[in-house]
Design a protein that fits this description.
Protein name: Origin recognition complex subunit 3
Largest sheet: 5 strands, parallel
Structural class: alpha/beta
Strand content: 5-15%
Subcellular location: Nucleus
GO biological process, one term: DNA replication initiation
Helix content: 55-70%
Radius of gyration: 35 Å
Shape: globular
Number of helices: 32
Subunit structure: Component of ORC, a complex composed of at least 6 subunits: ORC1, ORC2, ORC3, ORC4, ORC5 and ORC6. ORC is regulated in a cell-cycle dependent manner. It is sequentially assembled at the exit from anaphase of mitosis and disassembled as cells enter S phase.
Mean pLDDT: 82
Main location: nucleus
Number of strands: 10
Length: 710
C-alpha cells in the first residue's frame, strides 16, 4: 500500500491479521521454495547426510588427537608412579616437592581448543580419575574466584557447578570460609577412604578403571589470559598439597611455551616439573579433514572451487579454526538443500535412482532447466531432443543413467587425483601445490593439463630418479587398489607392469650422464667455455639414443598424463553436477563474512528480511505495528534530525503501536504505561547499539549518532 502527500509525515497502516507460523525446520525449507512438495524429504536427506558427516568428523578428530592424549596419559602415569614410590632418597624428596605440569601447545586456533579440552576431560574422567577441574580466565578474575571455582568443581565433580545458583552452590559445596589447604586435604582423604562404601554418590563418582589413589587434574584452558598474580598465588597454595595427594596441572597454551616463564617468576616456576606437548598443527588438521570429507566419493555432497576457496581463505586469513571450517561446510550443506529443489537427488546412487522414479512434472521441468542438462540435450540428435523435452518417463530413464555417470566420475576422479599428487608433491617449488587441496582446487577451476604449472610439473617428473619412481608407483598402485573405481582396474595392471620393468633394469641402464662429462664441466672455469660446453652437451643429449630407463620413464609419465586428461576434467563438464555441487559462493560469503553495520541496519529497517514473517512485510517507508519495538523506534528515529525530542518520539511510537487496536478509554489508559515501558526499553537498546546518546544541550532530547544509508 502506498500514499501520496505534499508534506513529509508518518503514515500508519493496519497489518494483515493472518500470520503464518513456522513450526519446524522442515517448514522453513518449504517456506523458502515454491517447490515444497519434497521439502520434508530434502530436510530429512540433509539431516541424515549431516549426521554421517558429523560422525565421521568426530571420529577423525578423535583419531588425530589420540597420540596427544596417549602422551598425556603416559605423563600422568609416570607422575602417579612417582607419587606412590617411597621417597627415601634425597633426590626423590626434592622431586616430590615439584608439581607435575604439562604445557599443551595447541596453536592460535582458539575456537578449536574447547573441543580438544572437552575430549581430554572425558578421557581422563572415564579411565583415570573423576577429579578433573577445568578453569577459564574469564571465570577467575581473582584468586578468590579461582579457589571457589576449583573447590566447587572438585567437591561436586559429577555435577555441573554452573547449574547452581550462587546461594545453592554455597549450600551444596563446603563453606567458602573453609576453602583452605587443610579442608582440601581432609576432603580428599575422606572421599578416597570411603571409595568402596555403598553410598550411591560414590558409585557414580568412582569407577573400577580409575587409578588408586586417583590424581587431581587441573586444566587451565587459556593460560595466557590468566593474570600473573592469580597463577602465582594458586601454584604456591596448591604446592602445599603435593605431599598429601597426587596433583597434575595442564596448561593450555595458544602461542609459545615461553609464556610460562614470562608469567611466572623463577621462584614459582621452580615449583613445577614442566613437560612440553605439541598438538597437530591446524593446517595439517585441515588437510586431513578436507581429505576425509571432500576428497572422497563416500559423501555425495560436494563443494565447487569458489566455495571451497572461500572457506579456505577464511581459515587462512581469519582464525585458523578447523571447527569454523566444518561449520562453514555445514552451512553450505544446509543452503544447498534449502535453495536447490533437485538436491533431493543428492544421496547415494541406489537411493537417488529410486527417487527419480517418483519425480513430479515440476521436478522434471527443473531438470530440463539445468544449464548442464541443456548442453547435454543440445548435443543429442533432434529426435532425442524432442523426447527428452516432452516425455517425463524418458527423462527419468536418462536421469538415472546420468546420475550413474556422475557417481562413476567421482569414483575415478579422486584416485587419479591422489596419484597425480603423489608425483607432484615431491617436486621442488611445488608447481601444483604441496597440499592435495591445492591440486584439487586447480582441477576444479579448469582443465589442469592446460596450465603452465602442470607443464612445469610434468617436465620435472620426467627427471625423477629410479628409486623415487619406484616408491611413487607403489603408492599409486596402493591408492587405486583401495579405491572403489571400476574403470581403473586396467590401470593397476599397467602400473604393476611398469614397476616390474623398473625393478628388472640393470645398473648400467640407470646411468644418465657419463662421469667424464661431469668432470669436464668442473674443469671449465671460464664462463664462455662453460656455456659452450653445456650447449654442446645439450645438443648431444638430444641426438643420442635414449637409455631403457629414460624410455620407460617417459612411458610412465605419458600414461599418468593420459589418466589425468581422461578423469580429472572439471565437474562443470558433467551433466547434472548442479544436483551435488554447491556453487553459491557469494551467499556463503555473506553468511560467514557479514558486515555488522549493514546487517544491523537491515534487521532493524526490514525485519522481514531475517524473520521471514509475512506480517512484517510492508512497503518501503511504511511502519508496521507488528514489527519488534526496537524496529519501530529505529525507523522513527531515521526521520529525525541531529537532536530527537523524546516526547515526540514517544507519541509517534504510541501511535504506531496502537494503530490497529480499537480500545475504549479505560483499556487505553492501562496500556499507556505498558507502551511507555516498551518505548524506554527500545530506546535503551538503540543506545546500547550506538545509534543515540544522551545530550547535555537539552535534557528531554537525545543525540543521533548515525547518518547516511548502508
Amino acid at each position: 500500500m502506498s500514499t501520496c502527500s505534499v508534506s513529509k509525515g508518518c503514515f500508519v497502516f493496519k497489518p494483515n491479521s493472518k500470520k503464518r507460523k513456522i513450526s519446524s525446520t522442515a517448514d522453513y525449507f518449504s517456506e523458502g521454495n515454491n517447490d515444497s512438495e519434497d521439502s520434508e524429504l530434502r530436510f530429512d536427506t540433509c539431516q541424515l547426510l549431516w549426521k554421517r558427516i558429523k560422525s565421521e568428523t568426530e571420529q577423525l578428530q578423535e583419531d588425530l588427537n589420540k597420540k596427544l592424549y596417549d602422551n598425556l596419559i603416559s605423563f600422568l602415569r609416570q607422575s602417579h608412579s612417582d607419587f606412590k614410590e617411597k621417597k627415601t632418597e634425597w633426590a626423590c624428596r626434592m622431586k616430590s616437592s615439584e608439581i607435575p605440569a604439562a604445557a599443551l601447545v595447541l596453536g592460535v586456533n582458539v575456537t578449536d581448543h574447547d573441543l580438544t579440552f572437552k575430549s581430554l576431560s572425558e578421557a581422563l574422567c572415564e579411565d583415570i580419575t573423576p577429579f578433573v577441574v577445568s578453569l577459564r580466565s574469564k571465570e577467575c578474575p581473582g584468586i578468590k574466584h579461582l579457589l571457589q571455582k576449583f573447590m566447587a568443581q572438585l567437591m561436586g565433580c559429577h555435577i555441573e557447578v554452573d547449574s547452581y545458583e550462587e546461594g545453592e552452590c554455597s549450600k551444596a559445596s563446603p563453606n567458602r570460609m573453609r576453602c583452605s589447604v587443610a579442608s582440601l586435604t581432609d576432603w580428599y582423604r575422606n572421599i578416597t577412604k570411603k571409595k568402596y562404601t555403598d553410598t550411591p554418590c560414590k558409585k557414580e563418582t568412582f569407577s573400577s578403571r580409575h587409578w588408586e589413589p586417583p590424581p587431581v587434574v587441573v586444566i587451565f584452558k587459556d593460560m595466557e589470559s590468566f593474570t600473573t598474580k592469580v597463577l602465582q598465588d594458586f601454584i604456591i597454595i596448591i604446592s602445599q598439597c603435593i605431599h598429601e595427594f597426587p596433583l597434575v596441572l595442564i596448561f593450555g597454551i595458544a602461542t609459545s611455551p615461553v609464556i610460562i616463564h614470562k608469567l611466572l617468576p623463577h621462584s614459582v616456576s621452580s615449583l613445577l616439573c614442566i613437560e612440553l606437548f605439541q598438538s597437530l598443527s591446524c593446517k595439517d588438521h585441515l588437510s586431513t579433514v578436507i581429505d576425509k570429507l571432500l576428497l572422497t566419493s563416500q559423501f555425495p555432497f560436494k563443494l565447487s572451487e569458489k566455495v571451497l576457496q572461500v572457506l579456505i581463505n577464511i581459515f587462512l586469513y581469519h582464525d585458523f579454526s578447523v571447527h569454523n571450517f566444518i561449520k562453514g561446510f555445514q552451512l553450505s550443506l544446509l543452503e544447498h538443500f534449502y535453495s536447490h529443489p533437485l538436491s533431493v537427488l543428492c544421496c547415494d546412487l541406489q537411493e537417488s535412482r529410486k527417487r527419480v522414479n517418483f519425480l513430479s512434472h515440476n521436478q522434471c521441468e527443473n531438470i530440463r532447466r539445468l544449464p548442464s542438462f541443456r548442453r547435454f540435450v543440445e548435443s543429442q540428435a533432434s529426435k532425442k531432443q524432442t523426447v527428452l523435452l516432452t516425455d517425463d518417463a524418458c527423462l527419468k530413464e536418462e536421469t538415472q543413467v546420468l546420475l550413474q555417470d556422475l557417481h562413476t566420475y567421482h569414483e575415478n576422479y579422486f584416485p587419479v587425483l591422489r596419484c597425480l599428487h603423489a608425483f607432484t608433491s615431491s617436486l621442488p617449488n611445488y608447481p601444483l601445490g604441496k597440499q592435495i587441496r591445492e591440486l584439487h582446487c586447480a582441477c576444479l577451476e579448469r582443465k589442469v593439463w592446460e596450465t603452465e604449472d602442470y607443464e612445469s610439473a610434468i617436465q620435472l617428473v620426467r627427471m625423477l630418479a629410479k628409486d623415487e619412481l619406484i616408491a611413487i608407483l607403489q603408492k599409486c598402485i596402493e591408492i587405486i587398489t583401495l579405491s572403489s573405481a571400476r574403470c581403473l582396474g586396467n590401470s593397476t595392471e599397467k602400473l604393476e607392469e611398469y614397476l616390474d620393468h623398473f625393478k628388472n633394469l640393470e645398473a648400467t641402464d640407470d646411468q644418465e650422464e657419463p662421469v667424464s662429462s661431469l668432470k669436464e664441466i668442473q674443469k671449465k672455469t671460464d664462463l664462455y667455455r662453460l656455456q659452450k660446453t653445456l650447449l654442446e652437451m645439450k645438443e648431444s643429449r638430444r641426438l643420442k639414443k635414449l637409455t631403457k630407463f629414460e624410455m620407460l620413464r617417459f612411458e610412465v609419465v605419458d600414461f599418468i598424463d593420459s589418466l589425468v586428461r581422461s578423469y580429472l576434467v572439471p565437474p562443470e563438464t558433467q551433466t547434472l553436477h548442479e544436483v551435488m555441487y554447491f556453487s553459491m559462493a557469494s551467499t556463503l560469503r555473506e553468511h560467514l563474512n557479514a558486515a555488522p553495520r549493514i546487517a544491523v541496519h537491515t534487521a532493524l529497517n526490514n525485519p522481514y528480511f531475517y524473520l521471514k514473517n509475512e506480517a512484517l512485510e510492508s512497503n518501503t517507508g511504511c511502519i508496521s505495528n507488528a514489527a519488534p519495538d526496537i524496529c519501530i523506534a529505529y525507523k522513527l528515529h531515521l526521520e529525525c534530525g541531529r537532536l530527537i525530542n523524546l516526547v515526540d518520539w514517544l507519541e509517534a511510537f504510541s501511535t504506531v503501536v496502537t494503530a490497529a487496536e480499537d480500545q475504549n478509554s479505560t483499556v487505553k489508559d492501562q496500556m499507556e504505561e505498558i507502551i511507555h515501558a516498551r518505548f524506554i526499553r527500545a530506546v535503551s537498546e538503540l543506545e546500547f547499539l550506538g545509534f543515540i546518546k544522551p545530550t547535555k544541550q537539552k535534557t528531554d532530547h537525545v543525540a543521533r549518532l548515525t547518518w547516511g544509508s548502508c
